[in-house]
Amino acid sequence: EHSDVDVEKVKSEIEKQAEETKEVWIKTIESLKSYAINMQNMSQEAYELYSQQAVVILKQMSEQLKGQAEKARQDMAILAEGVSTEGKQYLSTAAENSPEPVKDIVETFASQAPELREISEVRDFFIGIPY
Fold first, then answer.
1. Taking residues 110-131, what's their average pLDDT?
2. Could you tell me the maximum CA-CA distance found in the chain, to the nearest angstrom?
3. Of the candidates 122, 97, 99, which has an alpha carbon nearest to the alpha carbon of residue 111?
């Protein structure tokens, strides 16, 4: 009878410890869930904040780049105008001081024909060079 009481007592103690362990696990899991939700919320808030900041920075950079591009375009236009003027002067000098075949080439480039207004559109046959 004494051993039955001891067995029941041990069994009761084991069940009590198992229940306590189960409660601790449940509390731990709930705590981890709560922590994970908090971290997720913080991550979402941080993502939204940083993405908003990134948009602002990108807009500022875009405006700066637009300004720099416009300035570069203006500088290039000024340079192109200078090169064009120098080129015309060079062609005039070449036309005056060159042999006849070179004068023909200079006259071709100096002409105001619409197809020759853009130097990139000039084809070899305009200056007598065969293909």
1. 55
2. 136
3. 122
